[in-house]
Design goal:
The chain is built from five helices and 34 strands. The chain is mainly beta and about 600 residues long. The strands form five sheets. The chain has a 22-stranded antiparallel beta barrel. It is globular, with a radius of gyration of 24 Å. About 45% of the residues are buried.
Amino acid sequence: MLSAYGQKDSIVNSLDEVIVIADKNIKENSIGFKKINLQDSIILNNSESFTSLLRFNAPIYFREYGSGGTSSARFRGTSSSNTAVIWNGININSVNGGQTGFNSLTVNLVDNIDIRPGGGSIKYGSGAIGGTIHLNTDLQFKKHFTNQFISSIGSYETYKNVYKFSYGSSSFVMKGGISRNESENDYPLLGTEFVNTNGSYKNLEWNFNTAFKFSNNSKISFYTTKYNATRYFSGQLPNPKAAKEKYRDFNQRNLLVFEIKRNNFTHITKAAFLTQEYNYFADKNIDTYDFGKSKTYLLNYDFFWQINASSKLETYTEYTSIFGSTKQIEEKNRIQFSQAAIFTKNFQNNISYNLKFRKDFNSDFEVPFVFAFGAEIPLENNWKIRMNASNNYRVPTYNDLYWPGQGNLDLIPETSKQAEIGINWSTKRGNSSYTNVDIGYFYIDSKEKIVWTPGGDPDRNGIWVPINISEVLNKGFEIRLSQKYRLDHHIFTLSSNYSYTNATDKQTDKYLIFVPKHLINANFAYSYKKWNFFYQFLFNGKIYSSEDNFFSLPSFDISNIGLNYKIFNNKNQSLAVALKVNNIYNEIYQNSPSRIMPNRNFNTTINYKF
């Protein structure tokens, strides 16, 4: 991903070698797949929320229940529970709801983000059907001590403060950060006489990461993060003033990784403990609430064998035990044992491929055997063909199975078969210019798709229940363009994505709800010495909001602009200020029925590194 700043500052460039990455083989495991990487400067330009960051930089549709509310991601017309969120190699989707809320993640405490459309069940298990989003922490063995403080003020009493540090030597590194965000979020609902009532939020997150190198062949690392938030759910039209819901969530993740190398063999052992908990208040003025919580214990062993210079074998063994419960559901325990193998081959003519196989043994379900294949074939004049195929799965969540009065114990795992073929062209001329174009066609055939519907059970007429529907077909194509051009001190960058998706229920021949046929985003930036200007654009096509395709939400397009200025930038410290204007044309738009999104709003940021 090309930086909207044009280039990183000298402090970042001095830390140029990352040698401790918890999910270190994502690149090799993505042969034949398109992968988008978002670095720190892109993250800083979109620090309002994870939803905003990905909405403007990836071919993903987000359904958001108002600004700051619940937000879910959908790749290629699949559902939000078909998007797996991976934290340092660990799938962190909720066992209760089957997804991750993107407004419950803090942007500025993540070092970089990898986005990979396409099936990923081989490595990341249930739910990785539409695509995976990887949140990565980088630890660097090098003598350094850096600090960063970010503070921003935005419209509607929105405040963000972040502090991060990193300290290291040739054998030891530690890194941490803390972030606090809050907002009254009471923007006017354009086209009405109302404001966004009961929409305030505040959250606090901290993380700490450390690694120690025993020798050049062995090291140990530890990652931990904790998140605590309170948010209020804003009201819907026509009476948003009636809103009084409140939601609190508490999440903690811990991961220990030990790595040892011996000749051509590498052994990586991981142990993780994750907790998730929420409290839902139907009335914020009453202390009575519903709750849900889960605990995950995970052990993982990765074995790598470098057979020769061109061949590599990885085997992957994992044991997971998950305990989950809600106020209505007594605690359940789901145990899963997984075994996978990945073979990678690189030929001298740069043709590469890998074969992947995985079998899971689940205490609740018979999980299908899954496979994947990926290949890349270079052609003349910087052209390359890429292709991949896989089958993937998702097991029902606890809410799907056990929710009182609505769960369905007869559900079975949904499965999908998918294929993609693409062509890529890239060229680079030193530091003066760079261009990359990627065009890909995808096909996803899903069976036993799990959907919630009010007509799914004749004995519970009118009650929303989950059922397996026979078959869903998603097909379409994506285009991605990344470009950079430098002329002396003038730097121009452009990145854009276009996605066309046709997603239908083959039984009813109706278009799937909340799937835009057309999705476009683009980022343009111009840098000159200490100045940087950027422009962002998003077009979201029409979406249907009812299964009979009678109700729909119109298409919309919105634009943001921003200006950054580096007051000073030297070897020891740098100071930058920024101004960003979101929705500059004051467009009225919705991506969830009866919930109008924010009007034109402003955000100013100070970024100090020392």
